[in-house]
Amino acid sequence: MNKPTEKEKMLAGELYDSTDAVLVEERSKVRKLLHKFNISEYHNNDFYRTNLTELLPNCAGDIYIEPPFYCDYGYNIYCGEKVYFNFNCVILDVVPVIIGNNVFFGPGVQLYTATHPLNYEIRKTLESGKPISIGNDCWIGGAAIICPGVTIGDRCVIGAGSVITKHVPSDSLVVGNPGKIIRNLK
């Protein structure tokens, strides 16, 4: 049996070494694509679409992102139709980030799948990830942070500046740090 690669361990949510040459090269390639995307005049032209398709190959063709935008790998981001990211969003996608249809992200939203061990000795060399899932028809307010391993159900609204550390059931309005459900939206 072959020993798993660092990339295979990363994708499985296991502890892995992020300084692995393959992972460093993949992040470097994405940084170059992001640089082109973030500094180019775009106006939803062919260059914009081609660059986005290369950067986020697992997203519907009608995704719309206001630059600047940042991510680690791009290929771990899965978006449904009509997803919109406002300015300055960040997705740390060391494992899958699954986003439904008709989801809107305010400016400065951050999605973190990357996490680190609490043990300082292990944390010096290894990290891991926990996937994030966001349902259909959600609105994530500006500067909200979605922490590793969180699932947000359908039709949720996450208030601006909220920090979401736990699963959110469908039809919830969540605000605060840490995020608290303040009412059902149905």
Supply the key terms.
alpha/beta; UDP N-Acetylglucosamine Acyltransferase, domain 1; seven-stranded mixed beta sheet; five-stranded parallel beta sheet
List the helices and strands and how they pair.
Elements: H1 6-11, H2 21-39, H3 46-55, E1 64-65, E2 69-71, E3 77-79, E4 84-85, E5 89-92, E6 97-99, E7 104-105, E8 110-112, E9 114-115, H4 120-123, E10 128-129, E11 132-134, E12 139-140, E13 145-146, E14 151-152, E15 157-158, E16 163-164, E17 172-175, E18 180-184
Parallel strand pairs: 1-4, 2-5, 3-6, 4-7, 5-8, 6-11, 7-12, 8-13, 11-14, 12-15, 13-16, 15-17
Antiparallel strand pairs: 9-10, 17-18
Structural class: alpha/beta
Instruction: Walk across the major sheet and give the strand order.
Output: 1-4-7-12-15-17-18
Helical amount: 10-25%
CATH-derived architecture = 3 Solenoid
The run of helices and strands is: HHHEEEEEEEEEHEEEEEEEEE
* CATH fold field value: UDP N-Acetylglucosamine Acyltransferase, domain 1
CATH-assigned homologous superfamily: Hexapeptide repeat proteins
State the end-to-end CA separation.
51 Å
Structure explained in plain terms:
By secondary structure, this protein is an alpha/beta fold. It has one domain: Hexapeptide repeat proteins (UDP N-Acetylglucosamine Acyltransferase, domain 1), CATH 2.160.10. Helices cover 21% and strands 26% of the residues. It is built from four helices and 18 strands. It has helices spanning 6-11, 21-39, 46-55, 120-123; strands at residues 64-65, 69-71, 77-79, 84-85, 89-92, 97-99, 104-105, 110-112, 114-115, 128-129, 132-134, 139-140, 145-146, 151-152, 157-158, 163-164, 172-175, 180-184. It has a seven-stranded mixed sheet, with no helix packed on it. The chain has a five-stranded parallel sheet with strand order 2-5-8-13-16. A four-stranded parallel sheet has the order 3-6-11-14, with no helix packed on it. Helix 2 (21-39) packs antiparallel against helix 3. It is globular, with a radius of gyration of 17 Å. The mean pLDDT is 95.
